[in-house]
Amino acid sequence: MTKDKSASWAAYYDKLRDRPPRRTLLAALDAFGETPPDALALDLGCGDGRDVIEMLRRGWRVVAVDSEPAALARLQERPLPPDAALTPVLARLEEVPLPLGVRLVNSSFAMPLCEPDAFRALWDRIREGLPAGGRFSGQWYGPKDSWFGRPGMTFLGRDEALALLDGMHLEMFEEEEDDGVTPRGTAKHWHIFHIVARK
Ligand SMILES: C[S@@+](CC[C@H](N)C(=O)[O-])C[C@H]1O[C@@H](n2cnc3c(N)ncnc32)[C@H](O)[C@@H]1O
């Protein structure tokens, strides 16, 4: 990570501090009903842990992956539920193996920060690694997003996204297009797919 990039992520974590868990994660957790015994989740690009805390609160064991040391430091400074089973992992999404027995892979606003070949390889690993009944929750970006064309990122058309999800049961597939601002205050056109998929 460059110093500039790390500083930029640190500003992002400050800005979004104390935000509630993402609704894609909540939908996935709710869809499991009772937390399964020995439930294990993987959060890819966990940031300072807005989703991780909710999974821990509901009794999931969580492997939380991020490439920014500041993200994992902030996550561990949060008040964690008693008996929280948290394994922070400093790694790039492109390289991290799927832990054995993982039932839920959550990646909120992080997978598109991989370049296309790595994104597809990561998605293949997720699909293969999840057991039947396991779920993926998270966001992918579409080509009408203002960031389209940025190096090192992946954008998928609706049909491409649906093709990657083919064979999974889509519990949420919502396409959002909206003018707004980034957490850092820059005007932006968002084109996002909000996804919850069950294998
Ligand atoms: C937009 S933030 C989202 C954080 C959190 N999931 C949320 O919903 O608030 C993206 C996170 O992914 C991490 N990240 C970006 N690229 C990554 C990569 N290639 N490998 C691991 N983490 C990465 C960043 O450090 C950052 O914490």
Can you walk through the features of this model?
This protein is globular. It is built from six helices and seven strands. It has a single domain (3-198), classed as 3-Layer(aba) Sandwich (Rossmann fold). The chain is 32% helix and 26% strand. Helix 4 links the parallel strand 2 and strand 3 (86-90). It binds S-adenosylmethionine (SAM).
Task: Write a brief structural summary.
With 199 residues, this protein is an alpha/beta fold.
Bound molecules: S-adenosylmethionine
CATH class equals Alpha Beta
What is the CATH topology assignment? Answer: Rossmann fold
Helix content: 25-40%
- The ordered string of helix (H) and strand (E) elements is HHEHEHEEHEHEE
In the predicted model, the low-confidence regions spanning at least 5 consecutive residues are: none
Q: Any idea what the radius of gyration is?
A: 16 Å
- The name of the CATH superfamily reads Vaccinia Virus protein VP39
Q: What amount of the residues lies in strands?
A: 25-35%
In DSSP terms (H or I, runs of 4 or more residues), the helix count works out at 6
How many strands, what sense, and barrel or not for the largest sheet? 7 strands, mixed
Strand segment count: 7
The secondary structure category is: alpha/beta
Quickly count the domains. Answer: 1
Shape: globular
Overall mean pLDDT stands at 95
Terminal residue distance: 34 Å
Strand order of the largest sheet: 3-2-1-4-5-7-6
CATH architect. name: 3-Layer(aba) Sandwich
